[in-house]
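A brief tutorial aside. Many learners find it easier to grasp structure tokens once they have seen a single protein encoded end to end. The record that follows does exactly this for precorrin-2 dehydrogenase. Read the sequence first, then the structure, and try to relate runs of similar tokens to stretches of the chain.
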Amino acid sequence: MAAIPLMLDLKNKKAVVVGGGKIAERRVRTLLSSEADIKVISPALTSSLTTLYQDGKLDWHEKSFSAEDLQNAFLIVAATNDSEVNRAIIESAPQNVLLNSVEDAAAGNIQFPTQFSRGKLSISVSTNGSSPILAAKIKRDLAVQYDEKYEDYLDFLFEARQLIKRSSLSTEKKKQWLRRLVDEDHFHPEDQEFVLEQLNNIQ
């Protein structure tokens, strides 16, 4: 699979996860933050998935898989512990649907990278299935480097960028400001307030 990274908007899109075990649970937890319409197909669920179902976070169909379960799906995740069932899911998937195969990444057309977020900042790591353990290690290293202070910093950068875009500055001056925001240290709240005040005065 020649995979490229993409950011995907799944809000209100139908995501069908077939399987109710630990791997399916991990996929569901990743999807929860996307605000997708999550449907889980499985005769049984882990205790955590059961709690999510009881809390109204997902729709559970307590049954074995059938091809009809995939109708109108935007994203399908084959995550059972039965190779024959996973193969049936892949064969039943409609054309042009997003398909993730947990058992065999190459059998689908998308992968779930290991990832973490700091507010508006999202960082993902993938080894294209070569070594999930290495991907997890790199993620841990990056999580230390890009710690919680980046949450407020990204909020500041977003607000500053909006002010710059709306300003009467020339295109080149806008680029200079945008570069300055990341080239210089603007992590301290006092410094951020000073920069925003400057930008407000340009309007």
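Self-check: Strands lie at 14-18, 37-41, 59-61, 75-78, 98-101, 114-118, 121-125. If you spotted this yourself, you are ready for the next section.
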